[in-house]
Amino acid sequence: MLIGKFQHENGVYVGSIQTVAGGSQTVRIATTDLTGIDYLVTQAGTGIELGVAWNKISKEKGTKYVSVKLDSPFLPAPAWCSLFEQKDGTYNLVWNRPDPTKSKKTEQAAPEQAAA
Fold first, then answer.
1. How far from 13 is each of 5, 43, 68, 85, 89, CA to CA, in Å?
2. Distance in angstroms between the alpha carbons of the first and the last residue of the chain
3. Cα–Cα 20 to 30 A to 39, which of 9, 23, 54, 79?
4. What pLDDT sits at residue 114?
5. SS3 of the chain
6. How far is it, in rounded angstroms, from Cα 4 to Cα 84?
7. How would you label 64-86 residue by residue, b for 16+ Cβ within 10 Å and e otherwise?
8. Could you report the per-residue pLDDT of 91-116, keeping only the tens digit for each?
9. What pLDDT score does 20 carry?
10. CA-CA distance, 7 to 110, in Å (whole number)?
11. Tens digit of pLDDT for each residue in 63-80?
12. Which residues contact 39 (CB under 8 A, 6 or more apart)?
């Protein structure tokens, strides 16, 4: 599901993310020197931290992308997203909804393993 559109300028991704309330929020994904993290995700203008991100390369096609973890006290759980470059030079932020059938299978398997 497409949740945001970004531009890349001077090493910073700037764009907007659709919010649950139906509006949008301007976001910056900027490089950081923090150990183990490539980018900080912040609300533009306020600097409020919304998450972190890492440079990645897909195993299937070797495509470069940015793996984004949006994590905020306003979210019920962290949202893992991917920022992909488009043919026109813009970037799409995509979120894949977790498969509820997989989590149910895991939950159902756990009690059986405990009983064994």
1. 10, 12, 12, 11, 12
2. 40
3. 23
4. 45
5. CEEEEEEEECCEEEEEEECCCCCEEEEEEEECCCCCCCEEEEECCCCCEEEEEEEEECCCCCCEEEEEEECCCCCCCCEEEEEEECCCCCEEEEECCCCHHHHHHHHHHHHHHHHC
6. 11
7. ebbebebbeeeeeeebebbbbee
8. 999 988 766 676 555 444 445 444 44
9. 72
10. 44
11. 999 999 999 777 788 889
12. 13, 29, 30, 31, 32, 52, 53, 54, 66, 68
Pick the closest to residue 66 from 81, 51, 88, 46 (CA basis). 81
Dig out the tokens for 43 from the structure.
């609300």
Tokens 């949202």 map to which residue?
79
Name the more confident of 5 and 99: 5
